[in-house]
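Aim 2 progress. For Membrane protein, the working sequence is reproduced below.
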Amino acid sequence: MENAGRKRQWGSERRSEPLAIVHPTPTSRKIVLGRLAILVTVGAWLYYVVSTIIRQFVNNPNPGFRFGFESISYLIVVTFLTFSALMYLMARQGALYRFKEHRRVPRGELDNHFANYKEAVTVLVPSYAEEPQVVRGTLWSAALQEFPDLRVVLLLDDPPHPTEPEKIHRLEQTRALAGQISAALSAPAARANEALATFRERHASPLAVHAPGADKADELQLLITEYEAAVEWLEAMAEAENVEDHVDEFFVDLVIMGLARELRLVLLALEAAKAQNTAPNPERMEQLYLRLTWIFNVRTETFERKRYASLSHEANKAMNLNAYISLMGKRWRREETAGSVVLRPSLVPRDDDLLVPDSTYLLTLDADSLLLRDYCLRLVYFLESAGNERVAVTQTPYSSFRGAPTRIERIAGATTDIQHILHQGMTFYGATFWVGANAIIRKCALEDIVEVETVGGFEIRTYIQDRTVIEDTESSIDLGTHGWTLVNYPERLSYSATPPDFGSLVVQRRRWANGGLLILPKLWNQLSQRRSQRQRILFREVLLRVNYMASITWASFGLLFLLAYPYDSRLLSPAVFIAALPYFLCMGSDLRDCGHRFSDIFRIYGFNLILLPVNLAGVLKSLQQGLTGDKIPFVRTPKVKDRTAAPAIYVLIPYAIVAFSVLTVWRDAQQGNWGNVAFASLNAVLAMMCIQAYIGLWNSVVDVVLGAVNWLYVAPKPKPKAKPESLVVPKTAEEVDWESILYHGDRRLNRDLRGGTDRRRRISLR
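Predicted structure tokens for this construct:
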């Protein structure tokens, strides 16, 4: 194996072992301290309002406009920030309750449930301009899922006919992935299928006892031989993998070898049974044979919507998914129309039809995510358990890959692991949001929320809304409006990449900050509808949902106010610090539980400081879309080995924050406002440390210079094509594109045929 990945930085993550799949059971002490943290936060805020704000107005009946404005605005800022801290503590507490109550379903129950299973899962992997190696890992993690009927479809959204050699090569490599995986799995799949078939032939029926004369020991040995062959195949695959970075290491160790270790555990049990001169009953043996067929039997294919003119070509992940989902369950006839291909329903089946099988469940999976072996099995079992009939979406919110080679990837991964806990807790209060990196979805639920429109003569079906760039959040509200619920499964079964540099992180976080405000009216409509139907609505659910969608807005503007405005020192109080203290202590505890450092609370605070302009930009984009109605383009997070340059403004503003904080320290020290001095000093130190660690001083210079060059450079405008003065077509009859004329018509003809005696114009064919 080769190891030649991104250069490891000082202060990066050395630990590569992933966290446990099942969360540790929290102690009673931890739960009690969590409740105490909530009480202290609320109590400290109330004490601050009474002892500082109200007291100031009582003691100074005529404080003046400026002090009144400062008091009210400071109280608003502190209240919103305290509210977000309280929502963190509440969601965290819900997660602790869920982790304490969760019991993993035994493997035998899963095998029994799916032994005669007839439903299917279709895995949809939307991909645009991804590195083939990244997509390959994702497809393999989906293909090795243990499930009876599984199809993996790569929704390739790259332009189908690139002209640049590099893009042509990348596209050819990506297109070949599905076939390569299918070919690699064909041999173990054929062996597993044959072993199951011969086992069934040796028994009159799947549930029958051993046939007369059959030897239990021989039957057990045959099963052991099949499991040994499967393990050896997986271990050989792992040995042949090229490991270049921590993600590749995770893929080999947890995806491939994780499955091999599971099968080795079965082998251990079977060998023990053999040593004890016993064996599983025939029904259990058949289930074990079936498990091998579930692992290796998978159908893989690639679908490119941009090859078809009748499908939406909107440049976002949601419409890529919608295009394929709209085709499922039907046969389609390809029809050539003036140089393009359209899909029409096939009324008379033909061999060359495009057949898109339907399935009960969909699994949407980002092209940079990896699933552990029994993701599908456990989540589908959950959906089919009693009481979950109205659950539309279930998932395990993704965790970060361990062993990040850069400091910024490590700290961004820490925030990802914290978000995993919060999403688990939001489910406790019925406030789950779909996180789009991975999810199992009931297809019938999507049919409930579909919107149909006609564009250019073709029917476009929208299941997952693309009105904002956070399509998963908006779809969560749509599903709730139609009576569906969402649940996060309380285990770690999915992992996703974290941006390794500041430039790619800017793209991701700016997209995350955009759209929440636009969805709030939909939430209000949903709540009104549920209230009219006399459904129970938990107040905590409403608070958590509003905080999830709008907290970036008020936290960003609130922090901006605290940084920029010189508030009167009389408004400062230790109570504000005490109200925030439980939040930071609990976050530090959660970080330590996730394998990070308690001191990362300071790094995350500084991290959020330098991301302040990014979050503000996303919020402002939401406001722009709300005012203009223009959709914000979806921008994918770059996933490349080299560094992504950040826009100059997002590099310069963190330096401005440091400079202004230093100015504030000097100014307030002169006036004796020591509370402001301490706050500004903390901001200056942490922001500067994070600039050096996460952006880099030399990288800052490079990005600013690149920004200036790009701003000064003006691309030459292409020369406009001369408009034809007449409808004369300078071609022979044999050269005329008669198909385009018959299909599209001629827009020039529509413009030129107007009034006067000259209305009749001829098209000369020379």
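Residues 84 and 715 are 45 Å apart (CA to CA). This observation will guide construct design in the next reporting period.
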